[in-house]
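Example 3.2
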Amino acid sequence: MKNGSADEVSNPEQRDADGESSTAVLSRTKLQETRPDTYAEWDTEDTVLAVKAALEERHIVTMIEADDEAPQRLLQVQPDIVFNIAEGLRGPSREAQIPAVLEMFGIPYTGSDPVTLALCLDKSRAKEILSFHGIPTPAFQVISTLDDLLSLSVPFPCIVKPLHEGSSKGILNSSVVDTRNQLEDQVKRVLTDYDEPALVERFLHGREFTVALLGNGSSAKVFPIIEIRLDKLPEGVKPLYSYEAKWMWDQIDHPIEMYDCPAAIGSALENQIKGACLRAFEILRCRDWCRMDLRLDEHETPHIIELNPLPGILPDPDDHSSFPMAARAAGLSYGAMLHAVLDAAILRYGLA
């Protein structure tokens, strides 16, 4: 299914009787729904079970729900390594919560550390670091109150987003604004509906791409680049990969064929995109895997919009989940992709 919450998943503890490594999979618990997009970041039960089934090909797997009882369960199970897909429970640093617990307990895990996860979920902090290192990213300003709009320096057209959300949460067709009144309306919506600051960013009209990376150090590789074909969106809407485009208009029974993988681009642009993503991966100290979104400006220069070091991994190809799509284009099945991520972490920890 395309949207929905991950139900609580738990399995009886399985002991490693044959000397195989044991792997715990952490997913996210269910909270009270307050908005239509509340669960957009969370993994569906289908995804959680698909990850479990894939990892069980090589490992003993114990399921641990990433809720308030997760620390106690981790101490009970003592896994050799955790395959972390936990989005966290609450707050702007939520994706860092489980990795921080794992580091406190000395338990290895896949993916980036708490610092990187927290920085990347705060879009402004990630963009500040990219800007410092000369990696193009659209001009932006954080708006915490409506009074902050008095000093806004971002030119129109601009786009208004929640500062601490992923999966296109809070990014609507109306988020791209051309006037002061539209800007104020969208900032009010974000401040009220999400109870967090708004990120106002220069809107780039160029082509949009998403890039999946896997590995570490010199072995980090970029999968085939995906272009989001904005020209395939319904007539009359903004050229934007919005929440509506990702979760409402593109449905399994009425798909929008808006993904080219590999993207039809020249070698020069491809090398520019890959180079920017590899630099960002290194500079923000991402580990094992990450997905990045980019857009071209009027000079055809790729700008990094944001990084997702905890990428979505819906197993059904018809769901158009970007990281698995790029992995398939690189010749990896869903299971092989997950094992490659886990193997990257195992190698990084010296556990092979």
